[in-house]
Design brief:
CATH class of the largest domain: Mainly Beta
Number of helices: 2
Largest sheet: 6 strands, mixed
CATH architecture of the largest domain: Sandwich
Distance between the termini: 74 Å
Order of helices and strands: EEEHEEEEEEEEH
Number of strands: 11
Helix content: 10-25%
Low-confidence stretches: none
């Protein structure tokens, strides 16, 4: 909180508050009295907390899903959100957010850790409000003759037990 006053600017206030992961700032300028500047800041902050909330949708490093890998030494790779996404919404609007995943159903090896695999778009009332890139969690090498023969050997060994 910061207060100030001058003969020309009258009474001023910059105030901030945090509630339920939502931080707001209220700025009051040219209030006629010190009492008015505090009550107006309180009204602004109460209005903000009553009518808006912060909604997080994607967190950096969280797994979205597992993606099938063709011709890879492993058959799946985890798909991660590359960054965080959240936004300020009017209360009640969160259920109107549509999550659109733009990513293939399968991908061919080789795949490299951090490789771009697609994106997620967040849409509210037909308007895109945010996008997050999707990346591979780890490397997946392509199956070669050596790795194929190795897999075949271990499969035979398990059958003979």
């Amino acid at each position: 909180m910061k207060t100030g006053s001058t003969a020309l600017a009258l009474y001023n206030l910059s105030a901030s508050a945090t509630r339920d992961n939502l931080s707001l700032i209220a700025v009051i300028m040219k209030a006629p009295t010190p009492k008015v500047r505090f009550s107006e800041a309180e009204k602004l902050l109460d209005y903000g907390f009553s009518n808006y909330n912060y909604k997080g949708f994607a967190n950096n490093g969280d797994v979205l899903k597992s993606l099938y890998v063709q011709k890879g030494v492993t058959s799946n790779v985890n798909v991660l959100y590359q960054s965080h996404f959240g936004t300020l919404l009017k209360k009640g609007e969160a259920q109107n957010i549509e999550e659109i995943i733009n990513m293939p159903d399968t991908i061919c090896a080789p795949i490299y850790k951090g490789q771009y695999l697609g994106e997620v778009s967040y849409v509210l009332n037909g308007e895109t409000i945010g996008k997050v890139d999707l990346i591979a969690e780890n490397d997946v090498k392509k199956v070669g003759i050596y790795t194929f023969m190795e897999k075949l050997f271990w499969c035979w060994l398990r059958v003979l037990r």
